[in-house]
Design brief:
The chain has four helices and 13 strands. It has about 270 residues and is α+β, with helices and mostly antiparallel strands. Strands 1-2-3-4-6-7-8-9-10-11-12-13 form a twelve-stranded antiparallel β-barrel. Strand 9 and strand 10 (about 205-215) form a beta hairpin. Helix 1 (about 5-20) runs antiparallel to helix 3.
Length: about 270
């Protein structure tokens, strides 16, 4: 397999500089453990990607009713034996009033790591995974499986089940608010089910996703259930199709105590190194 250490060195430096740029001084001082973990995983993944393939993913998000901005920087790689590892660092606009502030007072929101292995049987792909996620207030362990079925060269149908175990042990509001703020006394268990329908043409990929979630805490409209739906368009550029810009339109709930819903807009770009 061809190894491009120079390219991977550039990727590692970009991720390192990106983290330092997006994290302001207060975040670096107050959440140094998260920063070290994120940078350490980025360096680890960059080294692994030198031996296989790598995907760098940047995404910006805007929620219309909340009028808030979010960003994601991800790096993933495929490993031998059909294994996959990825890390996502997610950011949001900080401050007392984050509305309509684009790249202003950006703070680290959460770090998520994914470990996945795929198994193939005919047109079926079954991928069990584990996704630890953490920030300064909580730790979340997510376990699941993602089945996909190839109908033909253009159409695919997929699904996902994920068990989410969340511990809010470091959430100040949860500690002081008690049962009124965290229905399960600083712990939450949720079951998530996704359904996917995907169409692939020459360069364009269209994916519809429907999400249903049930938890022992309130999720939407003071109820223990919530749903989302999303439509995403990806378009591959260039002869090697390494660059893939994409846009996503999502219908999501606004708050656990409100029945309001809002449009979530996402735009991003992938770079695939093979």
């Amino acid at each position: 397999m061809r190894v491009n250490y120079k390219l991977m060195g550039v990727v590692i430096k970009l991720i390192y500089l990106g983290c330092l740029t997006l994290l302001n001084k207060d975040v670096i001082m107050g959440k140094s453990k998260l920063l070290r973990a994120a940078l350490g995983m980025a360096l680890l993944l960059g080294s692994a990607a030198a031996l296989a393939t790598a995907t760098v993913d940047y995404r910006h998000e805007y929620r219309l009713r909340d009028r808030t901005h979010y960003d994601k920087l991800g790096l993933s790689t495929t490993l031998p034996n059909d294994m996959f590892i990825g890390i996502e660092t997610k950011y949001k606009t900080g401050g007392a009033d984050p509305k309509d502030k684009f790249y202003n007072d950006t703070v680290l929101n959460v770090v998520e790591v994914t470990f996945l292995k795929s198994y193939y049987w005919g047109n079926w792909t079954i991928s069990p995974f584990i996704q630890p996620e953490f920030n300064s207030a909580r730790t979340e362990w997510k376990f699941g499986v993602a089945p996909w079925y190839k109908i033909n060269d253009r159409w695919f149908i997929g699904g996902l089940y994920r068990l989410e175990l969340t511990d809010y042990a470091h959430e100040d509001k949860c500690r002081t608010g008690g049962i009124d703020y965290c229905d399960t006394d600083r712990h939450r268990t949720a079951n998530r089910f996704d359904l996917y329908l995907r169409n692939k043409s020459d360069r364009l990929t269209t994916t519809y996703k429907l999400v249903y979630k049930h938890a022992d805490a309130k999720l939407f409209a003071n109820k223990h259930d919530d749903y989302e739906q999303e439509l995403q368009f990806d378009y591959a550029l260039g002869n090697e199709r390494a660059w893939v810009p994409y846009v996503t339109f999502g219908d999501i709930g606004r708050a656990s105590t409100s029945s309001e819903r809002q449009l979530r807009l996402r735009a991003g770009i992938l770079y695939n190194y093979r």
